[in-house]
Amino acid sequence: MKIGFIGVGGMAQAIITGLLKQTKLTPSDILIHSAHASTYEPFANKTGVTAKATNAEVAQDSDVVVLAVTPNVATPVLQEIRDQLDAKRKILISIVAGLSLKRLEELAGYDLPILRTLPNLNVAIGAGMTAVHANEHLTGEAKQQAVGLFDQIGSTVTLPEADFSTFSALAGSSPAYVYFFIDSLSRAGVKHGLTKAAATKIAAQAVMGSAEMVLKSDENPFGLIDQVSSPGGSTVAGLLAMEEAGFMTSVVKGIDATIDRDNAE
Ligand SMILES: NC(=O)C1=CN([C@@H]2O[C@H](COP(=O)(O)OP(=O)(O)OC[C@H]3O[C@@H](n4cnc5c(N)ncnc54)[C@H](OP(=O)(O)O)[C@@H]3O)[C@@H](O)[C@H]2O)C=CC1
Ligand SMILES: O=C(O)[C@@H]1CCC=N1
């Protein structure tokens, strides 16, 4: 199976890196093209994937075409490759935030099997979280194959398209917010005398363990907060100070702004 990527930015590179690490796909199975050779040629040289000269060549020579461009250029790019998207032989996977299946079908072909996805950057290490929704033409083995790509680089969840914006904030953008939280913890460690490297490792390991605890424990997060907060202790003092500075409100406001921006696409 040949997989072609149109757009080779941060997210496409993360998916390709994850696929090469976690699946049986080899660099020769992957084709790429993007707007600037200065982006895709060094990536092809580094990973061994094949750089093509045009978007149309990628679409022509791939069984699965992954649309990984920014939303503002998705329309002209799909118009450019539409003739190559033979509905009997190709699957289109879109990772473009805010681009509906209806719009994808209008632009790429009404009979084309299409999987709309919203992955996150952690697919690069096989720990992604990806929402998927297939159109009516993507069924059976072809659907399993397309969704299976994302199952192999993390977890997937099938969601109604109406929930994609919320998912995008909670899982697509949230890695940035969690990295920000880790960096904030780490900076506080530096303020109190730790090196940045030591503080970052300590903070990241604590966040990773805490996420795993939430997933594996029967308790909800508030129950776990209570277990950490010894009566009269330091944790509850820290929690109250964070809340006084608006911790939960700032997180919810950030998610609201993320959803609003996604809906404006
Ligand atoms: N970043 C993330 O965590 C996530 C991103 N997404 C979605 O993934 C998509 C890509 O985002 P991201 O990787 O962050 O963005 P980037 O800006 O990093 O990548 C966009 C890519 O599109 C390419 N491109 C622009 N114009 C064209 C064109 N005419 N033909 C071919 N390629 C073109 C760019 O080429 P060049 O580099 O050569 O200029 C670049 O490689 C977006 O639609 C976004 O919504 C979804 C989930 C998470
Ligand atoms: O910032 C963005 O628009 C994309 C969508 C989800 C993550 N990154």
From TrEMBL:
GO cellular component: cytoplasm
Residues involved in NADP(+) binding: I6, G7, V8, G9, G10, M11, S34, A68, V69, T70, P71
Compartment(s) of residence: Cytoplasm
Gene Ontology terms, MF aspect: pyrroline-5-carboxylate reductase activity
Xref: PROSITE patterns: P5CR
Pyrroline-5-carboxylate reductase dimerisation domain span: 161-262
Residues annotated for NADPH binding in this entry: N55
BP GO terms, sorted: L-proline biosynthetic process
InterPro entries: 6-PGluconate_DH-like_C_sf, NAD(P)-bd_dom_sf, P5C_Rdtase_cat_N, P5CR-like_CS, P5CR_dimer, Pyrroline-COOH_reductase
Domain of life: Bacteria
Sequence intervals crossing the membrane: none
This protein's UniProt keywords: Amino-acid biosynthesis, Cytoplasm, NADP, Oxidoreductase, Proline biosynthesis
Positions of the Pyrroline-5-carboxylate reductase catalytic N-terminal domain: 2-98
E.C. numbers: 1.5.1.2
Catalysed reaction equations from the record: L-proline + NADP(+) = (S)-1-pyrroline-5-carboxylate + NADPH + 2 H(+); L-proline + NAD(+) = (S)-1-pyrroline-5-carboxylate + NADH + 2 H(+)
Pathway: Amino-acid biosynthesis; L-proline biosynthesis; L-proline from L-glutamate 5-semialdehyde: step 1/1
Function noted in UniProt: Catalyzes the reduction of 1-pyrroline-5-carboxylate (PCA) to L-proline.
Similarity comment: family membership: Belongs to the pyrroline-5-carboxylate reductase family.
Protein's name according to its UniProt entry: Pyrroline-5-carboxylate reductase
Organism: Secundilactobacillus silagei JCM 19001
